[in-house]
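Continuing from the previous page of notes. For each protein in this section, the sequence appears first, followed by its structure tokens. Read the first protein now.
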Amino acid sequence: MNKDLENLLNSLEPEVDKKCFELKQKQKERKLQKLFIITSIMLLVLPSILIIANINIWSFIIGAIAVTSTIVIIMLPIALKQEVRGECYE
């Protein structure tokens, strides 16, 4: 009986790994959706706050472009390297 159980577990292991990968992907997608929503809200709210606080929008835009450029330069290699089901595509 113990050997049958081991055979069953060994045969189901690829399916368990596949399901685990799918769950991790869904969790990653949910995090990205939340990040997108927060970024969209900030994109709408931040200019309004700058106008109310009487801050020059151009000084903010120059800073935002500098920060965004730095982040893109740092994160681009990470974004381009994708691992799908254990296989790395570069």
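Done with the first. The second protein uses the same format. Note its length before scrolling.
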Amino acid sequence: MTEETQELAEKVVATFKHNLSETARKQIRDADFNELTLMIREAISEELAKATDMVEEVVRKLRSETDKPEIGL
């Protein structure tokens, strides 16, 4: 996983922590926040993989169209 993905996941968790009340923050262990970071990082990675697959499919289609000989009239 990329550094950018890790940083984004950490930023999301930091924002989530900031939005919690102090009482709620005290009730959630650091290990739980770390697990949340991991889940977010994995979700981002899965979505990036799906996007990559979609882009690769478009590239394949475009290449197949450009590989066809032009018919001159």
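What the second structure shows: The two ends are 52 Å apart (CA to CA). Residues 3-64 form one domain. We return to this in next week's lecture.
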